[in-house]
Amino acid sequence: MGEGINGDACLAAAPYDHWVLLGPAGGSPRPSARYKHAAQVVQDKLYVVGGSRNGRSLSDVQVFDFRTFTWSALNPTRDSNQLNLENNATGGSLPALAGHSLVKWKNNLVVVAGNTRSLSSSNKVSVWLIDVETNSWSAVDTYGKVPTARGGQSVSLLGSRLLMFGGEDNKRRLLNDLHILDLETMMWEEVKTEKGGPAPRYDHSAAVYADQYLLIFGGSSHSTCFSDLYLLDLQTLEWTQPYTQGAHIAPRSGHAGTMIDENWYIVGGGDNASGSTDTIVMNASKFVWSVVTSVSARDPLACEGLTLCSTIVDGEKFLIAFGGYNGKYSNEIFALKLKARNLVQPRLLQSPAAAAAAASVTAAYAVITATDEKTRDIVATDDFDIKKAQPASSSKKFIAEIDVVNGEKDKLESRLAEVRDVNSKLKDKLDLANLSYGELAKELESVQNQLAAEGSRCQKLESQIAAARKRLESAGSLENELEVLRHQISQVEQTMATTQRQKSGGVWKWVAGSAEVSDDE
């Protein structure tokens, strides 16, 4: 992390692709540290709504002004038309929320879903509007098939429609359903997609690309974090898992993302063991990942539950990150000035042979196009006017030139066919290599599983051997003790035998003596 920038410095002077800390001007107070909040940029101001701190949800709206570098509280009042409603459970203040989503639409900030204790009686998703011009808010009545209440969902804006995917409901059930809210009619619709979509998850990220595709990345279940990428065609409602290239992306949950042109930027998150330190970007047209920059493991940006927005200052595009939790709650705001990114070519065109073939195709196509235009220009001239205005020799000259051009065109088309054939062969080789790679990967995985099983078996055998050794040692000790006891028993038996003989002799002597006395009598 580089040096911070305060209100006396120029944000546009910040280095490219490097996070800088934005310090409030004049020591103005910062808002409470938090995570699982929501944020959006509207007219040079960052609006932060709600969040969680120490298990308590927040209901405030904080505003950072990029022109003055100062924080202020918005304190919106409830729309006067709703103050006397019977279901007014929160009075005039905005409900305390965490794990909700926030999108900018017209003059409003639309707050969707989230965990709130003040409206716990409702088991359906709630929607609120914050009007930043009138400094007021209102609860919105929605219709149709209103989704189950949830937190940790993703919400993306497409025109006047909100696309909500996944999340975790109040009973901690994970979801992978898709719902669309029409903001013009406030009508909910549940969308049934084809099979093969993402597993149920929460704290993932989502983005809309080219007004036709919904991208879902990462998130977590109750036991693991994901690094997978899914794409939903909003016209066919079919899910696919694109083959991605570039940097290796670790699993993460609780991250934040924003789409700028065709680049999807993602920051923060974690895998239940540590925070993600890299800021990554995916070119959505090529599905190529790359790392923009990295921070240290204890940096405030290596956290979960932060927000990421974008804005333009003095013609430069910036990423804006705020809040989060990495063992400590954060209330810092960071900015990253984006460097213009070139389109990334697919990996196939990065090999020398394929690049040469592509260059040949490009050159051939350019020449053919120019030739076609030249031919069209020549042929487009009225033949009757040419014959009247030019002598016969000139006409023959034009015809000869046309023949030459057509000959060049035929040669170039032949060359183009050869290049296409080379491309086709390269593609076949690539497909074969991918197939071989897939088979080798499966074989490697099988061998790894066998090794793991053998390793586990070896550990069990070692434990059994150690136990047997202990038993043998105990047996040896017992055998020694038994030998001593046998010796003692032998001695006792000898002693008893001697004693018995002595006693037996004495008795017989007594009997014999008694007999002699009787005879004398």
From TrEMBL:
Which keywords does this chain's UniProt record carry? Coiled coil, Kelch repeat, Repeat
| Entry-linked InterPro entries | ACBP4-6_C, Kelch-typ_b-propeller, Kelch_1
Specify the superkingdom.
Answer: Eukaryota
Gene3D superfamilies in the cross-refs: 1.10.287.1490, Kelch-type beta propeller
- Give the matching SUPFAM superfamilies: Kelch motif, Tropomyosin
Q: Which residues form a coiled coil?
A: 402-502
Q: Which residues form the Acyl-CoA-binding domain?
A: 401-502
Per the record, a Pfam family? Answer: ACBP4_C
Protein name as it appears in the record: Acyl-CoA-binding domain-containing protein
Lineage start? Eukaryota, Viridiplantae, Streptophyta, Embryophyta, Tracheophyta
